[in-house]
C-alpha cells in the first residue's frame, strides 16, 4: 500500500462538538492509525463547515460577526480533538482563503462546461439540512423528517447543477463497485434515491444567504453550502481546476481518497452529489464511502430538547481520565460497521474496566512482576523460541487487518480482546507460579516470555485505539511501537535484562463510576 487518504465529514460550527461528532473522528482516527501501521504515507483530513444560513442566523443572535463566531467554535472542535488525541494531518475550515478561491474556480469550471445553469425556482428549504427538500421527503404533516420543522418556501433564481446528467454513470459505478458504499446494506437505499433525483440548486441569492462564497462574476449569488462543503476533500490537498495536471503533487499522490467516513444521514450527499461533482470535474471517485451509524445516549436520540447532549471532553472530566484511550476504545467499538451504537456511563465503565484494566493491563503487569520475582527481570536464552502462542498471535494480526480492510473497527477490537483472553487462559492453564514453586524454572521462564512476546503484538494491535496505553506497554517491553504490522513476528524480545521492579506500572487504572455520578 503506497498511500492511504482518509477524511471525515466537516462539522457545522453552530455549537460545540458532541459525542456524535467525536464518534466519527475517533473511528476515522483509529482507521488512519491502523493504516499508518501498513503504509508510510497515510493522510487524515478533518475540519469544519462554516458557511450557510444557520451560522449567519446564530452569529447574529449572539451579536457577533459570522467570522468571529466561526473562529470561536472551530477552536472548540480543535481543542476537543486534541484532548481525544485525534491525530489529523490537516484541519480545513471552509472559510480558509485558499478553499474559498478554489471553490469559486470549481464552480466556474462547471458553469463553463454547461453542467451548472441558471434557473428560476420555487422550493422547500430546510435550514437544518441546509438543503432543498421535495414534497416526497416530508412527513405527513409536511415537516422535515430529520429536524421536524416546516421547511421554508423559497422562490429564487439560482444556479442548478445537472445532477441528472450523471445519474446513469453513478448507478453503473455503484453496481460495478459493490464495495463503494460501506456497509453494503445501504446500497439499495442509495439506488432507490437515485431513481428520483432531479437537478439540484447550488447557489442562493445573496439577499437571502449572505454568509458564503460568492459566485465569481455574479456576486449576487452565493455558492450553496454542499458544493462548498464537499469540495473541501480536494481543495485541502491542493486541487486546482485551472492547473493542467489538476493541482499539486500532493493532490495527485493522495487523490482518490481511500475511505471517506461520514454519518448515515449525509450518505446521499456523499454517494450521489459528490460522485456527480467529481465526474463533472473529470476526477476519479473515492474508493469507499463509509457511512457509520448514529450514537444514542442511554438508548435515546441525543437532542438539545432532551438535555442529553454529551460533550466528549465532559466524559474525560467526569471520570477524571488523564488519557483519552478508554473513551476512544469504547467509542471505536461501540457499534458493528455501519450500525447505530449507544453510550452509557455504566456500560463505559464496565467495558473499559473489564477489557483494558482487568484483562489487558493486568496481564502485562502480572507477567512482568513474575519475571522480576523469579528471574530479576531477565529473559534467559533458553526461554526463547518455544512459543505455542505465536501462530494464534499472527493469525490475530491477519484477522485484524482483514477487518480493517472492510472498516470493521469494532469487529477488529473484538479479535484483539480475544487474543488477550486466550493469553490470559494460557497463563492460568500453565500456572507459572506453580512451575516456579515446583522448581520447573525453565518452563516457568518460557511461559512468561511467550506471554510477553504476545504482549508486544497486542500493543501494536491496540495502538490505533489506545495510543497512550500501547506506548506505555511498549515502553515496559522495550518494544518499538512504530513496528509496521507486516513486520510483526511475535519474537522481538531478546535474551537479556528486560525490566526492573520500579519500572513496572499499571498501564491503565480502572475508571470509577461513582466519581462520574458525583460529578453529574
Ligand atoms: N457539515 C455537514 C457535513 C459536510 S461534509 C462535506 C454536517 N455537519 S454535522 O455537524 O451536522 O455532522 C457532522 C458529522 O457528524 C456527520 O457525519 C454526522 O453524521 C455526524 N453526527 C452528528 N450527530 C451524530 C450522532 N449522534 N452520532 C453519530 N454521528 C453523528 O452534516
The CATH superfamily title of the largest domain: HUPs
The proportion of residues forming helix, as a percent range, comes to 40-55%
Taken from the alpha-carbon principal axes, the silhouette is elongated
Number of domains: 2
Query: The biggest beta sheet, please?
Result: 7 strands, parallel
Mind telling me which CATH architecture of the largest domain this is?
Answer: 3-Layer(aba) Sandwich
Per DSSP, the total helix count is 19
Question: In oligomeric terms, what are we looking at?
Answer: single chain
The low-pLDDT segments are none
Summarize the structure in words.
The protein has 520 residues and is an alpha/beta fold. It has 2 domains: 4-297, HUPs (Rossmann fold); 345-517, Orthogonal Bundle (Isoleucyl-tRNA Synthetase, Domain 1). Helices cover 46% and strands 15% of the residues. It has 19 helices and 18 strands. The chain has helices at 19-36, 53-61, 66-83, 97-113, 167-176, 187-195, 225-230, 232-235, 249-254, 267-280, 312-318, 325-332, 345-375, 390-405, 409-430, 432-437, 441-462, 467-477, 513-519; strands at residues 4-8, 11-12, 42-49, 90-93, 116-126, 131-133, 152-161, 181-182, 200-201, 203-205, 213-215, 218-223, 259-263, 289-292, 295-297, 341-343, 378-379, 496-497. The strands form 5 sheets. Strands 1, 2, 3, 4, 8, 13 and 14 form a 7-stranded parallel sheet that branches. A 4-stranded antiparallel sheet has the order 6-5-7-9. The protein is elongated, with a radius of gyration of 26 Å. Residues 9-12, 20-21, 23-24, 49, 229-230, 262-263, 265-266, 294-295, 302 line the site of 5'-O-[(L-methionyl)-sulphamoyl]adenosine.
Amino acid at each position: 500500500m503506497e498511500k492511504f487518504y482518509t477524511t471525515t465529514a466537516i462539522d457545522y460550527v453552530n455549537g460545540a462538538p458532541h459525542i456524535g461528532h467525536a464518534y466519527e473522528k475517533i473511528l476515522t482516527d483509529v482507521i488512519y492509525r491502523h493504516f499508518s501501521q501498513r503504509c508510510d504515507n497515510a493522510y487524515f483530513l478533518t475540519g469544519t463547515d462554516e458557511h450557510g444560513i444557520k451560522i449567519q442566523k446564530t452569529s447574529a443572535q449572539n451579536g457577533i460577526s459570522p467570522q468571529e463566531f466561526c473562529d470561536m467554535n472551530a477552536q472548540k472542535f480543535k481543542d476537543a480533538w486534541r484532548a481525544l488525541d485525534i491525530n489529523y494531518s490537516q484541519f480545513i475550515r471552509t472559510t480558509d482563503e485558499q478553499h474559498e478561491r478554489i471553490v469559486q474556480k470549481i464552480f466556474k469550471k462547471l458553469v463553463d462546461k454547461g453542467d451548472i445553469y441558471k434557473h428560476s425556482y420555487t422550493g422547500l428549504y430546510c435550514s437544518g439540512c441546509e438543503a432543498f427538500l421535495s414534497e416526497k421527503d416530508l412527513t405527513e404533516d409536511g415537516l422535515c423528517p430529520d429536524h421536524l420543522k416546516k421547511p421554508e418556501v423559497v422562490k429564487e433564481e439560482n444556479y442548478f447543477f445537472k445532477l441528472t446528467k450523471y445519474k446513469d454513470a453513478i448507478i453503473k459505478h455503484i453496481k460495478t463497485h459493490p464495495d463503494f458504499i460501506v456497509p453494503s446494506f445501504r446500497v439499495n437505499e442509495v439506488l432507490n434515491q437515485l431513481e428520483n433525483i432531479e437537478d439540484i440548486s447550488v447557489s442562493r441569492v445573496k439577499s437571502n444567504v449572505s454568509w458564503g462564497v460568492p459566485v465569481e462574476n455574479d456576486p449576487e449569488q452565493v455558492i450553496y453550502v454542499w458544493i462548498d462543503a464537499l469540495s473541501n476533500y480536494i481543495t485541502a490537498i491542493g486541487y486546482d481546476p485551472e492547473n493542467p495536471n489538476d493541482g499539486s503533487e500532493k493532490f495527485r499522490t493522495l487523490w482518490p481518497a481511500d475511505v471517506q467516513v461520514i454519518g448515515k444521514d449525509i450518505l446521499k450527499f456523499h454517494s450521489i452529489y459528490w460522485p456527480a461533482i467529481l465526474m463533472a470535474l473529470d476526477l476519479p471517485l473515492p474508493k469507499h464511502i463509509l457511512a457509520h451509524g448514529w450514537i444514542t445516549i442511554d438508548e435515546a436520540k441525543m437532542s438539545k430538547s432532551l438535555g442529553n447532549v454529551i460533550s466528549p471532553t465532559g466524559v474525560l472530566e467526569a471520570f477524571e481520565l488523564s488519557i483519552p484511550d478508554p473513551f476512544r476504545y469504547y467509542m471505536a467499538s461501540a457499534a458493528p460497521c455501519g450500525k447505530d451504537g449507544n453510550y452509557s456511563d455504566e456500560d463505559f465503565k464496565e467495558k473499559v474496566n473489564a477489557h483494558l484494566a482487568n484483562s489487558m493491563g493486568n496481564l502485562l503487569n502480572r507477567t512482568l512482576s513474575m519475571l522480576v520475582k523469579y528471574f530479576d527481570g531477565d529473559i534467559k536464552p533458553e526461554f526463547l523460541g518455544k512459543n505455542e502462542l505465536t501462530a494464534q498471535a499472527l493469525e490475530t494480526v491477519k484477522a485484524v487487518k482483514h477487518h480493517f480492510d472492510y472498516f470493521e473497527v469494532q469487529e477488529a477490537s473484538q479479535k484483539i480482546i480475544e487474543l488477550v483472553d486466550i493469553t490470559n487462559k494460557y497463563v492460568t492453564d500453565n500456572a507459572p507460579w506453580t512451575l516456579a514453586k515446583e522448581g520447573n524454572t525453565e518452563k516457568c521462564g518460557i511461559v512468561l516470555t511467550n506471554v510477553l512476546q504476545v504482549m508486544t503484538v497486542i500493543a501494536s494491535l491496540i495502538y490505533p485505539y489506545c495510543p497512550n496505553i500501547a506506548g506505555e506497554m511498549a515502553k515496559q517491553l522495550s518494544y518499538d511501537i512504530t513496528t509496521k504490522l507486516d513486520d510483526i513476528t511475535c519474537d522481538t524480545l531478546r535474551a537479556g535484562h528486560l525490566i526492573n521492579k520500579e519500572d513496572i506500572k499499571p498501564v491503565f487504572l480502572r475508571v470509577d463510576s461513582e466519581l462520574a455520578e458525583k460529578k453529574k
